[in-house]
Amino acid sequence: MCPVPSGGCCGTRAQYTGAVPRRVALITGPTSGIGAGFARRYAADGYDLVLVSRDTDRLGELAAELRNEGERAVEVLPADLAESADRGKVAERLTAGVDVLVNNAGFATSGEFWTADPAVLQSQLDVNVTAVMQLTRAALPAMIDAGSGTVVNIASVAGLLSGRGSTYSASKAWVVSFTEGLAGGLKGTGVGMHVVCPGYVHTEFHDRAGIDMTSLPSFMWLEVDDVVRESLADIAKGKVLIIPGTQYKAITTATRMIPRTLSRATTNVFGRGRGRT
């Protein structure tokens, strides 16, 4: 039995010396985009970090950057969340206890579902859905025992609008429903569940997926820092479903008020529903 109180654990959180242990945030997919934004913000707020990515070179670079900016511990945990063994490795780290889990890793692909490589589709499901479920399950017991903790799942506005990439939208809809359901079950435990649903954000995401976004109007784009800032402000208010950007709040509100057939047609025209998986 580990002697560290309040959900801490020997060799993972700060060793107990009578001082209050430093807070720890574990972030998946932190080497670029929204994940990097959350990593830098939590580091600036004084958290020690556990960074999880399959890109070991960029993982090391980010860790070195954040270590140099302040007196904080930055643990690197190389892992491919499409692989069961690697998900298990991250889950084991989470059972030792963290204060914040940000499930950010995820990906989309270009092309149509019926032409996509089944192995790629399975990997997408494993990263976007299975990893979120498994890592959240691993993190919650220690948080509940401590009476505090925060889980932030990064979904997408695609999870709220039908037709924007079949498997990607479906995976993000699962994350939304999963988070909202858990938030109700965790009420009164001191643990917060939150799901962030960004729209189009200036990151490497679409380039990596091979999706051409050059024709998208400029007013539809969000910046990473704005997404992170708005998300953390809403988390502090206790909001469960978080939609950064006034334009996306308006879009999602409007689509919920119209028939689903019209919503699908609108999304296919303006949301680039074809050529995405």
Summarize this entry quickly.
45% of the residues lie in helices and 14% in strands. Helix 1 crosses helix 7 (224-236), helix 3 packs parallel to helix 4 (118-146) and helix 4 (118-146) packs parallel to helix 5 (166-185).
What is the helix fraction of residues, given as a range?
Answer: 40-55%
Number of strands: 9
Radius of gyration: 19 Å
Strand order of the largest sheet: 3-2-1-4-5-6-9
- In whole angstroms, the N-to-C terminal distance is 46 Å
User: What ranges have pLDDT less than 50 throughout 5 or more consecutive residues?
Assistant: 1-18, 209-213
Task: Give the SSE order as H and E letters.
Answer: EHEHEHEHEHEEHEHEHH
Kindly report the oligomeric state of this protein: single chain
